[in-house]
Design brief:
The chain is of the alpha/beta class. The protein has a single domain, classed as Ribonuclease Z/Hydroxyacylglutathione hydrolase-like (Metallo-beta-lactamase, Chain A). The chain is 34% helix and 21% strand. It is built from eleven helices and 13 strands. The strands form two sheets. A seven-stranded mixed β-sheet has the order 1-2-3-4-5-6-7. A six-stranded mixed β-sheet has the order 8-9-10-11-12-13, with no helix packed on it. Helix 7 runs antiparallel to helix 8, helix 8 crosses helix 9 and helix 9 packs across helix 11. The longest helix is centred in the C-terminal third of the chain and has 24 residues. The protein is globular, with a radius of gyration of 18 Å. The structure holds zinc ion. The site of zinc ion has 4 residues, from loops.
Length: 280
C-alpha cells in the first residue's frame, strides 16, 4: 500500500500527501491533501481513505477543512472524524451534503473512480481557520463549483487551491461549473501573490504566479472565442469543436457525457453567478 501514498515536507510546517489507487493511477488521477499544524486541507477520495489514514498515522489531525463538496475532496472526512475525532469544516451551503453525501446524485463513473463518501459531522467554515501556529484565510473562489473556496496562509504565501487550478489548460467541464466566475477567482488568487500553490490533483506548483498567468490567459481567450462564435450563430457543440477540437470519446463514454468540451462551451456562455447545476 505504501506505493500508493506519499508524504512530502514541502516547507517548514507544511506537508503534502499524495494518494492514488490502482485504477486512479491507470487513468492518470491522484489526490492531494495538505497538513498544516494539525489541520488537514482537503481529504482526497473515499477509495483512497485507507491510504490517507496510513499516511497520517503518527501525525495529529484535529481539523479537516475542504474546498468543496466533490467526493474526491471529502473522502477522508468521515473516517478522520470517526478514528481521531477530527472536526470537519466545509463551505456553509455544503454542510447538508457532507452530512448526507447520498443526497447528491452521482453517475457510476464517480463511484467507480472515487468511491462513495461516508457521512461526516460537518460544520460551516468562517472567514478564517486557526491552528496554534497559523492563521489561514478562507477565500471564496466560485467557478469550479458555486461554493468552492481556497485557503490562503498570508505570512508564508501558501495557497491551497482545491480544484481552482487543475493545470494550465482544462478542455472539458461539467454543468456545475461557470467559466466567467472561474476567471474572476483565478484573478483574485493571483492578486494574493502566492509563493506556493497546492492543487488537489496536480500537487505542488512552485511558481504559482507564472502558472496562474498562463491559466488566466487561456481562460480569457476561451471566453472571448466562445462569445465570438456564439455571436456568429454557432451552438455550443460546434463552438467546442472549432475552439477545442474533437471530443475525447473515451471520456464521453466513461462519464456518460457528464464531462465534455461541449459542456465547457455551455458553461462559458452563462452569466457570472449562474450555475446550471449548483451542487454536485
Ligand atoms: Zn471538484
Amino acid at each position: 500500500m505504501g506505493d500508493y501514498h506519499r508524504v512530502e515536507a514541502v516547507d517548514e510546517g507544511l506537508e503534502v500527501i499524495r494518494v492514488e489507487t490502482r485504477l486512479s493511477r491507470r487513468l492518470g488521477f491522484c489526490g492531494h491533501a495538505s497538513l498544516v499544524d494539525g489541520l488537514l486541507l482537503d481529504a482526497c477520495f473515499p477509495r483512497a481513505a485507507d491510504r490517507l489514514l496510513a499516511a497520517l498515522s503518527g501525525r495529529t489531525v484535529e481539523q479537516v477543512a475542504v474546498t468543496h463538496e466533490h467526493e474526491d475532496h471529502i473522502g477522508g472526512c468521515g473516517p478522520l472524524a470517526r478514528h481521531v475525532g477530527a472536526a470537519v469544516l466545509c463551505p456553509e451551503p455544503l454542510v447538508p451534503v457532507l452530512r448526507r453525501p447520498s443526497s447528491v446524485p452521482r453517475l457510476p463513473y464517480r463511484h467507480l473512480l472515487w468511491g462513495i463518501p461516508e457521512p461526516s459531522p460537518a460544520s460551516g467554515l468562517g472567514a478564517e481557520l486557526r491552528t496554534s501556529r497559523f492563521r489561514i484565510e478562507v477565500i471564496p473562489t466560485p467557478g469550479h463549483t458555486r461554493d468552492h473556496v481556497c485557503f490562503f496562509e498570508p505570512d508564508r504565501g501558501w495557497l491551497f487551491a482545491g480544484d481552482l487550478y487543475l493545470g494550465p489548460k482544462v478542455l472539458q467541464a461539467r454543468l456545475v461549473e461557470n467559466t466567467t466566475d472561474l476567471l474572476a477567482s483565478l484573478r483574485r488568487v493571483a492578486a494574493l501573490r502566492p509563493k506556493l500553490l497546492v492543487c488537489a490533483h496536480k500537487g505542488l506548483v512552485r511558481d504559482p504566479a507564472a502558472a496562474l498567468e498562463v491559466k488566466i490567459r487561456f481562460v480569457e481567450e476561451l471566453l472571448d472565442g466562445v462569445k465570438r462564435l456564439e455571436d456568429s450563430g454557432l451552438a455550443p457543440a460546434a463552438i467546442a469543436r472549432q475552439l477545442l477540437g474533437p471530443e475525447d470519446l473515451f471520456l464521453i463514454a466513461f462519464t456518460f457525457g457528464d464531462y465534455s468540451k461541449s459542456r465547457l462551451a455551455r458553461v462559458s456562455l452563462v452569466p457570472a453567478g449562474s450555475y446550471a447545476c449548483p451542487i454536485g
